[in-house]
Amino acid sequence: MAKKTAPLLPVSEDRLVRFGERLRLARLRRRLTAKQVAERAGMTPVTLRNLERGGSGVTIGAYLSVMQVLGIERDLDLIAKDDTQGRELQDARLPRRTATTGLVEASALTGAKPALRKKSGAPQQKQTETWFEDSGFVSANTLAELITPPPAPSSRKRKR
Q1: CA 113 → CA 90, 92, 105, 132, 137, distances in Å?
Q2: Running DSSP on this structure, what letter comes out for residue 77?
Q3: How far apart are CA 106 and CA 54, in angstroms?
């Protein structure tokens, strides 16, 4: 007997039901019977019926098999493609540049005031600072500036 999964939130159940309905409509547009799609996808008609009803017990592999039969398997590539929430969380941890450390100020990027976190007793140029971006957008040039190391100090001695 298959393991039970955690119950889905009602919103997630509704999404799954709508997804199953879209797959059913895609099948009908192609004038394919449920029996034909089930055979081609390697499943029983009962599994296909559960899938088209948005059953949460149907594996993602079964959903992908049906999508493959219908010729829409590439649509799976669109799921979580951008991951905006993950990128915002990642960007919140990026360092910022200052005059002493060579890092870019957050206010120059977003117009927002940065949140500072300083180590006590540390010299001014070695303080640790982080910034949090409100807009959720960072240009490629800004990111390149963040990862470019500051120039090394000159090792030449002055003549007196």
Answers
A1: 19, 13, 9, 9, 16
A2: G
A3: 45
State residue 102's pLDDT score: 59
Show the tokens assigned to 112.
Answer: 């927002």
Q: In b/e form, how buried is each residue of 107-140, taking b as 16+ CB within 10 angstroms?
A: eebbeeebeeeeeeeeeeeeeebebbbeeeebee
pLDDT averaged over every residue in the chain = 76
d(CA 97, CA 146): 7
pLDDT, position 107: 45
C-alpha dihedral, 82 to 83 to 89 to 92, nearest 10°: 0
Q: Residues 14-37: what's their mean pLDDT?
A: 96
Tokens of 117: 């976190």
CA–CA separation, 86 and 91 (whole Å): 9
Torsion angle in degrees (nearest 10) through CA of 134, 139, 142, 147: 100
Q: Considering the entire predicted model, what is its pTM? A: 0.55
Determine the 3-state secondary structure of 84 from DSSP: helix
Tens digit of each residue's pLDDT (9 = 90 or more) over 146-159: 676 666 666 666 66
